[in-house]
Amino acid sequence: MSSHKILLVDDHPMLRKGVAQLISLEDNLEVIAEANSGEEAITSALASSPDLILLDLNMKGPSGIDTLISLRRAGTKSKIIIFTVSDNEADVLQALKFGVDGYLLKDSEPEELIEKINLALDGNLVFSAPLTQIMARSLQSGDKKKINLIDKLTQRELEILKFIADGKSNKVIANNLGITEATVKVHVKNLLKKLGLKTRVEAAVWAVENKLVTH
User: Would the pTM count as exceeding 0.85?
Assistant: First the structure.
């Protein structure tokens, strides 16, 4: 199995080293390059075409947002996850506006970081659970009437929806409920269809808006 290539961008060498060591334990992930500034990140990304870029927000020189904008304008197809200590709403919304694939906080558990990286590589928008309220506000569509669809969901689907709202992966949900990952995928597909939603992020936001979970 080939490894997904990852570029680490952070101006703190010790943090880069720690994250690199964590990622090195995964058979399907490989850190191919590191950068300590936005300028280095752009040069390295264009030269190595990583599958995913883990990008710090606050660095000397160009910020993470400025670097994100430059990378997208340069045409990079890499998945880009902001990895930061900032849970500031303006930072999250800016990152979303400019095409980020995820926004994770540095106090995330190591297992959560790896799970979210893999989810992003699979095409999911990922974010740390404490940011769900911000996501809900940013993705709301005007004053559109909410329709109560909770009654359409089975008890199992409701359980899984709450796990999704907490940012849990299918694997973690399966382990918690004592069912297979394949079964979780079927339930996720069914609940999305019943709610008229397309993605897990939309489902998480819907759960928060309808007060199924609180953060």
Answer: no
